[in-house]
Amino acid sequence: MTRILAIDDEESITQFLKMGLEAEGYEVITASEGMTGIQLAEKWKPAVAIVDIMMPGMDGYEVCRSLKKYTNCQVILLSAKGEVTDRVTGLNAGADDYMVKPFSFEELIARVQARLRNTPQYEEQPTGLFSIDDEQKQITYQGEALTLTRTEYKLLRYFIQHKNKVLSKEAILNAVWGYDYYGNDNVVEAYIKTLRQKLQDPEHQVIQTLRGFGYKLDVTE
């Protein structure tokens, strides 16, 4: 059973999430403040954490940074703040998604499912020329460790998890930058360019461009 952690100082919210998510077949544990939530995550290893931003003491941004540093869970931030700057702050803190209160439970379920599709599957991590150490946030290529930024790591990991499949720019944006990304979609091309440089792929044989369709990581040997 997939584990989900809900962190919110409002008991009505955590109980609502617990009841609804358990009805969908998930195993749910709740916390009313950030530090307890982080401790539960380290011990309980949830696949997804749903975290409120406006909490006393440690706020959701700080909780998110700690969760992304010490666990492998996907983080969905909840907030009554819906301005672009608030969303950007949340995504820059490491969040994988951002939802504004009040929210549709059906939409929350859809976003949880989307995040689960991007959760690393350890038994599938060794992939031919690549291997992923998600604990250390490290990817090796042909036996050599790559020096990657956080976003480069997320992007390359997404490619590896979908090796030999054509991925549209929209799918990449949603998976790596989140559904609420409002920036220019040329960011995908810019990051792929830097990955190609680090993979020593000037001929675009590893990360291939398929005009009109998207990109593909070719790991055939």
Automatic annotation (TrEMBL):
UniProt KW keywords: DNA-binding, Phosphoprotein, Transcription, Transcription regulation, Two-component regulatory system
Highest taxon listed in the record's lineage: Bacteria
Domain (OmpR/PhoB-type) ranges: 119-219
Gene3D superfamilies the UniProt entry points to: 3.40.50.2300, 6.10.250.690, Winged helix-like DNA-binding domain superfamily/Winged helix DNA-binding domain
Modified positions (4-aspartylphosphate) in chain numbering: 52
Pfam families the record matches: Response_reg (PF00072), Trans_reg_C (PF00486)
Keyword check for DNA-binding: yes
Regions recorded as binding DNA: 119-219
Signal sequence segment: none
Domain Response regulatory: 3-116
The name this protein goes by in its record: Response regulator transcription factor
Species in which this protein is naturally found: Kurthia gibsonii
